[in-house]
Each structure stands twice: as structure tokens, then as C-alpha cells.
Amino acid sequence: MRAPGWYYRLSSFFREKFGVRVTKIPLNAGLTCPNRDGALSEKGCIFCYNPAFSPAAAKRERGDENRSHGIRQQIRRFQWQMEGRGQPAHGDKEPPPSFTPRNSYLAYFQAYSNTYGPHYLLDRLYNEALQAPGVIGLSVATRPDCLSADVLDLLTSLAGRHHIWLELGLQSAHDRTLKLINRGHNFACFQEAVQACQGRNLYLCVHLINGLPGEDPPAMLETVKRVSALPVHGVKFHQLQILAGTSLEPLYRQGAVSPLSLEEYLRITCDQLELLRDTIVVHRLLAETPQRDLLLAPDWHVPRARFAGMVEVELRRRGTHQGKGGFD
Ligand code: SF4
User: Fold this and answer.
1) Helices of type H across 25-174
2) How far is the CA of 140 from the centre of ligand 1 (A)?
3) pLDDT at site 101
4) Which atom of ligand 1 approaches the CA of 34 most closely?
5) Which ligand 1 atom sits nearest the alpha carbon of residue 50?
6) CATH code for the structural domain at 10-86+100-318
7) Orientation angle between helical segments 217-228 and 262-275, nearest 10 degrees
8) 95 in contact with ligand 1, CB cutoff 6 A
9) Which of 34-43, 82-91, 199-208, 258-267 has the lowest mean pLDDT?
């Protein structure tokens, strides 16, 4: 059945499921990534930026039991600011002990690969977040090759009592592209990860990037077709952004990579929405960069809400909607 509206928004999904607005709290648990710490590579994906990254730092982080310090603090600060009840003027200023959130939240383990760590540490981090007042579940971002049976069992046990999203970075369904961008895994690895998550009460969200080097619009549409055919529940679309200090920067400066224009990105995203199964929740339509001074390209910037409006206008103009082109 087609979701209401032009496309299936995450806010609609939360309202249907919980009857209230749910806000995601971005967290940095201090974890790392096998594509950065040397386990797979020390270079990372070619679009990935981490100014603090070094192999030594990554190794130190892997053995540091104290890095969970701050999860509860990050949650409380975010909730306090979100609910308009205070604006910490300095990093060390805390919400008052009496503060209790009124709204519902998902703790979003966003930075790096958040299933990549020892079981006891992940257990502690996830539970610390889930025990925070107002937190009804987790969203855990990771790589498809970082899902051991142990970590899946841990997430499955949490999913019995909480709402759990697993966000899997894929970016493209084409192995040639995955190799070019140094992902360190192929599409088959992603398919196996999706399969391993079945029957565990986990919600799967897939991260995709449009405009990757070597990909034309038909390749980007093919990625969405392949993802739609799998038992996943959500997708995040992003435009390729070139950040200073990444491996993409020299390619961009040599003219080997040219980011999509706003018009191209809008057209491709709408084409993809038409192909996207209508029960898949759209978590995000485009990327925003908090550190705009690092953004070399593209030269356009549109706030997410405005881009969502542009997508709706375009789908209305076409007389179409999510799933119209392939999964009705
Ligand atoms: S998997 Fe994620 S954290 Fe690791 S290098 Fe790629 S983008 Fe960066």
C-alpha cells in the first residue's frame, strides 16, 4: 500500500508507530572504523573526513574503556536545548539536575562504525543511551561488514523492548564504484548483512550517495532498484560532497570528479523516489555539512526542509509519487 503523501517521511512513520514526534539525538561514542584504523585500510572511504584521524589515535580508542563517558551527557544536553529550556553557553555547562525531557527521542549513534568494538563496550554504550529519560530506542550507524553474530544478538535482545534502527552504509550497489571509493566491501556483503538481520525485529536503513565518480543517472537508479528489492525499511539519500582534506579533494582539483548541480540532483532524487518501494521510509533527502568552510563542492546549499518542498513540487508536477515507477 502506498504511504500517504508524495513520499514516505520519517516523521510520518514515527507518528503512525508511536503517535508522537520522535527526534534523533546525534551521538559520538568515540568508536572508530575498520576502514580507518588499519584493519581494512587506513585511508577510509574517499569522501570521508576526519581531522582527528590517525592510526595511533584509532588504536588508542579501540582499547579505551572510558570513551563511553559522555553519552548520557550528550543526550541530556541535546534534549535540554531541543526543548528550548536552556542553551549551554559553554561546553562544560550542564542542564540542571531537575531537567526531565518531555518529548520522545532516538539515540543516534552516528559517528564512524557503531557496531565495531568489543561486545561489553557496545552493550554498555547502547544501554546507557536506552536508560536515558525520554529515549525510546536507538539508531545505530555502521558498515555492512561490521555485523558479527554477537552484535546482532545484542541488538536483537534490545529490539525486544526498544525500537531499533540499524543504518547501513552502502552508497552504491555497483562493485566497481565501491572499489573506486575504497569502501572495503562489495554489494554481496551488503546483501548478506541484510539477510543476517532478518527475523530480528530490527529496522534497516540504507545510506546512498548520488554523484559518485564514474556513475551516471542510470547507475544511480539501478542502485535504488536493487535496494528496493531487498527487505529494508528505510533509505537516506545524499549528494556527493567534496570536503577539504579527503581523498576526493585531489581528484576534484584534477577535474576527475564533478559534483551534481542542484537541478541534476533534484531530478535524480525524484526519479529514484519513483522507483523506491512505497513502504520504504525516507529518512533524508540530502546531506548538510555543519562545517561549511570545508565544503569545496558543490557550490549550492539548500536547507533540508526547502529541498523537501522542491521534491514535492517536482513530484506534483510529474503527477507521480514514491513507488509510482516500479513497485505499485
Ligand atoms: S565506513 Fe564510514 S567512517 Fe569508515 S571510512 Fe567509510 S565513511 Fe568513514
Assistant:
1) 55-62, 71-82, 119-130, 149-159
2) 14
3) 93
4) 4
5) 8
6) 3.80.30.30
7) 30
8) no
9) 82-91
> pLDDT for 86-96, tens place per residue?
655 555 567 88
- Cell output for 288: 548538510
Angstrom distance (rounded) from CA 268 to CA 211? 10
Distance, CA of 274 to CA of 268 (rounded, Å): 10
Give the span between the Cα atoms of 72 and 92, in whole angstroms: 14
Angstrom distances, CA of residue 89 to CA of 83, 86, 93, 94: 16, 9, 7, 10
Q: By alpha-carbon position, which residue is closest to atom 3 of ligand 1?
A: 112
CB of 33 sitting under 6 A from ligand 1: yes
User: DSSP characters for 57-99?
Assistant: HHHHHHT-GGGGTTHHHHHHHHHHHHTTS---SSTT----TT-
Mutation choice for ligand 1 from 35, 110, 116, 177, CB with most ligand atoms inside 8 A: 35
Tell me if 144 CB under 6 Å of ligand 1. no
